[in-house]
Design goal:
CATH topology of the domain at 71-169: Lysozyme
CATH architecture of the domain at 71-169: Orthogonal Bundle
Structural class: mainly alpha
Distance between the termini: 50 Å
Largest sheet: none
Helix content: 40-55%
Strand content: under 5%
Length: 171
């Protein structure tokens, strides 16, 4: 059922005395001459401090029981150089090895690079290599995060898991 409502504006004519017309005209002249406040005139409102990426990532890694050391300086530096979010590396490590708990320690590969079969001289080297590849590697350059994750691991729900994780720990 369609209900139509007809709207008609109501116009009340206000009758002003000649003296009140002059008063209104004077007020309008004075008001138009007053300075207009701008945003620059307003005092800055203090903004609540955001968590630094280190604090938020550290809290996430502690909450999820990552193996220490967390290697956050390496993660932050490598992610910055590769122009990728540091939470991407952290979440890949979480999804691939439960935060460094479940992987072959001889490979130093908690990020599951090449299906976990690649070996690195250290975990730091693995972080640097994977971040560099995700940032500008031949198979990853110019792709969105979701596309990069599909290349990293083509399983249907892998990118959903990593991206979901990133929302929990992203600054």
């Amino acid at each position: 059922m369609i209900v139509r409502i007809k709207w008609t504006p109501v116009r009340n004519k206000i009758k002003l005395s000649p003296g009140s017309k002059k008063l209104i005209a004077g007020v309008l002249l004075v008001v138009s001459a007053l300075p207009v406040s701008t945003v620059a005139d307003a005092r800055p409102i203090p903004v609540a401090r955001k968590y630094a990426p280190v604090e938020k990532l550290t809290a996430f890694m502690q909450r999820k029981g990552f193996v220490q050391p967390y290697n956050l300086p390496d993660i932050l530096q490598s992610a910055s150089q590769a122009s990728i979010p540091p939470s991407l590396i952290v979440c890949i490590e979480f999804v691939e090895s439960s935060g460094g708990k479940h992987y072959d320690a001889d490979t130093n590969n908690p990020l599951g690079w090449k299906n976990g079969k690649a070996s690195f001289p250290s975990v730091r080297a693995a972080i640097r290599h994977v971040a560099a590849e995700l940032g500008s590697g031949q198979n990853y350059a110019g792709k969105t995060l979701e596309e990069k994750l599909r290349v990293y691991n083509p399983r249907p729900y892998y990118s959903v898991k990593v991206l979901g994780c990133m929302t929990q720990c992203a600054p």
